[in-house]
Amino acid sequence: MPRFLVVEGPIGVGKTSLVRRLANHFQSEMLLEGAEENPFLQRFYENPREAALPAQLFFLFQRSRQWNGLVQDDLFRQQLIADFMLEKDRLFAQINLDKDELALYEQVYQQLTLQAPPPDLVVYLQAPVDTLMKRIKKRARPQEKTIEADYLKKLCDAYTDFFYYYDRSPLLIINAAEINPLERQRDFDLLIEHISSEGPDRRYLNPTMSL
User: Fold this and answer.
1) Which residues contact 152 (CB under 8 A, 6 or more apart)?
2) Residues carrying an active site annotation
3) Residue 94 maps to which CATH number?
4) Deoxynucleoside kinase domain spans which residues (predicted)?
5) Contact (CB, 8 A) for 74 and 122
6) What are the binding residues?
7) What is the rounded distance in angstroms from the CA atom of residue 118 to the CA atom of residue 132?
8) Which residues contact 13 (CB under 8 A, 6 or more apart)?
9) What is the pLDDT along the chain (211 residues), one digit of tens a residue?
């Protein structure tokens, strides 16, 4: 397994559940986003314009504490799997904040000087909006009940654009609508094979291989 592995993708795609299973398989440490700790998140989903800035700033300070804790504990000497990468905060901020709020956010971001080593591999889970909406509805988290398809579409487009240009780490792109490593052992074994093997810096997991 890569020493530092990140699983990323839009809301509802199954990042955290997959990280938990991978960590159990590899007996690795986990770093989880902890979105449920954000007291502004439900308010953001109910009224994005009113709560976007405090929600983003909370996540930013939370990330700072998490990464500083990792550095102090020297956890990067161990295998680590995370369900987020630092760059995602800016991605969400660019979607949710207006011009003045984004400028303030950037000032705070620069003051915190957040730094993390590049992952040895990023697993990017993709899924269409209708699949994400079904999964969000199925897991029935109270703070997510007001999420709309239009917002998920903007988020998916932002992720697509971000990873189109991403070159900081090797990237494994997976169609999570067709491959289900959480519920199908064959798909999970296939994912483990791709994670554990070397290959080009940008790889794709072909859905037809799991049929």
Assistant:
1) 10, 11, 12, 129, 132, 133
2) 83
3) 3.40.50.300
4) 5-195
5) no
6) 9-17, 135-139
7) 27
8) 125, 126, 127, 132, 135, 176
9) 788 999 999 999 999 999 999 999 999 999 999 888 999 999 999 898 899 999 999 999 998 888 877 765 665 567 899 999 988 888 999 999 999 999 999 999 888 866 778 899 999 999 999 999 999 998 888 888 889 999 999 999 999 999 999 999 999 999 998 888 988 999 999 999 999 988 788 999 866 544 4
- Using alpha carbons only, give the angle 37, 63, 168 rounded to the nearest 5 degrees: 135
Domain count, the chain: 1
- Domain enclosing residue 158, as ranges: 4-210
Give the chain's end-to-end CA distance (angstroms, integer).
Answer: 25
| Measured CA angle at 3 (ends 77, 202), to 5 deg | 150
Q: Which tokens sit at 3?
A: 């020493």
The pair phi, psi for residue 173, each rounded to 5°, is: -100, 125
Please give the annotated binding residues for ATP, written as ranges.
9-17, 135-139
148: left (phi over 0), alpha (psi -120 to 50) or beta: beta
Structure tokens at 87: 């760059």
